[in-house]
User: Fold this.
Amino acid sequence: MNNQTRRAALKATALAIAGIAGCSSLGGAEKNSSSSGGEPQTAAKSDAGTLEETATERQTEAKIKALQQRVDQLLETVVEKEQRISTLESELSAERERLERLQYQLKNRTHRVGALESSLEERKQRIDDLESKLKKRENRIDSLESKLSGSSNEYSDEVLDLAKETGLSTRNSVVHLRAERERGYSIGTGWFLKDDLIVTNGHVVGSAEEFTCWLPDGEPFSATVVDSHHGSYGDLGHIDIGIIRADRTGPILETGNSDKLSRDQPLVQVGHPGFVGNWTISLGRYIEENSFFGFLTSIPTMSGSSGSPVVDLAGEVVGLTGGEIDDERSSSDANRPKPDSDSVRTSFDDETYATHNPIESVMEFVDDVTD
Assistant:
């Protein structure tokens, strides 16, 4: 039952009570008028009854009056409750509006936080890029300072003697390759990894099917292609590896671990750089790991050195030479070409880094193609 229904019921009760009171008064008057013409004895009895009825009527009227007062009190209470309900409904409506405003503000704050987090990630990426560039600049400064100090002072006599000893020992396993092609031939370097298998570069193999080979002893022998790859290769990333099989065995080189190389560690390369010589021993330093090429060194290299083994001073192979790259282009933004300065050059600097596939990539590729 709602408030309006309750109020109407109370009003109906009040009207009913008032009606009962009226009926009681009329009934008493009628009884008095009918008894006035009787006998004296009858009149006495009638008076006594009238007095009793009058007392009862008064009691009834008192009860009715009390009920009327109670009804009036209940009506007042209903009005107060209705006013309280109206007040609470207004407060509830206000709270709902406040909740909607808070939800809207929360949504805006959430979007703002998302935008700030995105901006923070961009700033972090920018910082990483700047740190990478700074590292390259520091390497460049180190290289220039080293050259300014004089190449003769770059390595100690002990290191130079050990590099020579290591190079001469490595020479015995290094092969001079002549790739026979339909239109002429090309020269490259290879080395015996195991039994009759020779490792070189994928671009040295290219379209060649047969090779004429020499070890330092001067006796020629032949080799045929097993497999080669120059480009992306599964989890190994970019590789430049070729495998050929000789018609003889040769002295193999021991393999090491490229993961243990450290900055500026001396490394030796033996190869056949064009216009320089054959089985040339070169010395340089480990620069850094490179996500595309494998790792970089300052070892002097040029055409003909492709496929050369890179060994540490203990004589263990840690990498396979692939080529060279300008040290300014060795960073992560190497694919974003930029214009040179406006000056007219009369010569080119030879500031380059040699690129190498890690020995671990070489071994995994050999296992794949020879299993």
